[in-house]
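Field: sequence (string)
Field: structure_tokens (string)

Example rows 1 and 2, in order.
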Amino acid sequence: MQQVFAYGSLMGDAALARYRTRPARLPGYRRAFLHESRRRWGQPESPCPILGLAPGGECWGLVFDVPDSDRPRVMRALERREAAHERRRETHTVETPDGPIPAVVWVSRNGNGSGPTNPDMESLETRLRAAHGVVGTGSEYVRELVHAMELHGIRDSLVDTLWERLRG
């Protein structure tokens, strides 16, 4: 069995939806808008800020249990989706209700995110409002994050604050 930790849009990804899931905490990392989508949620001229993992703090997300029989297919799909050139696949211990377990996590490469490393709320909001890609808008990206997190009782002040600004 392979455990996969999801902290952003992967929490609602179809590739993982059929597998057992439970809440998990990844210590030592936090959500941050470190990357840009130039196709799915944005375009080259107006990229959409998207989440990555930055050092510091903690991040609540979901752990998915992927059976060994599905592991090669799922991991190939996730490698493509998680933009391997911007993130690196690592194994970290995450804390679950069942105790600590090792899980695959995609962590942002230091200095390799394509977006600003520490954008302010106003800048993020402006960029999210301007982004429109083949999957949807920047506002829809944040709405999907909020929805996926709310389904599992997960809160994140960064995502919550952005959603409040974008809804208003």
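Row 2 begins here:
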Amino acid sequence: QANAVLTANGYVVAQIQAAVASKGTGRLEFLGVEEGDRGKKGTIIARLEEQDVLAAVRQAEANLGVAQADYQDARLTLERQQRLHASNLSSQAELDAAQARFARVEATIRYAQASVSAAEVALENTRIRAPFDGTVLTKYADVGEVVAPFASSANSRGAVVTMADMNSLQVEADVSESNIIRVRPGQPCEITLDAYPEKRYPG
């Protein structure tokens, strides 16, 4: 310290850190991490109750199946009316009706596909995944508690856990304006932590 140009106090902070929350609202059904646990990016660390969302997915898939079955019938009917009309065995009105039905069935399929996609997104929103490889710092919620994206109620939680990438740790130190002239880019420094005073880290 006698040879030190400047001594400053600061904190060790993670540059990559996130409060991991749910996109949906519901009761927490599963929490697979504790404080200090490591999580891999994309793995499910928590899950909300999903029975009602699963039912919506199955219903949307069933509606899509019905629409696809109607599509085969409408396509065959249209092809048959086109052949009959070409042979002057059916009227223009019958052909127009077959074409209109085929177009309606196509639109129904697109709507059913969109409904399946929306239900699958809602299902994914019940699953809380790790946003990056990191360590769980703090746990805010427990199984059975209500989780909401923007917790406005005293009975609900916003973030489920806080995670940080421990490979992104840096020391942030405060230097007063009067001493800033002593600091220059690339200047070596020595870091000592209160928790491990006998160990010194180069910086």
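free_text_note (row 2): The mean pLDDT is 89.
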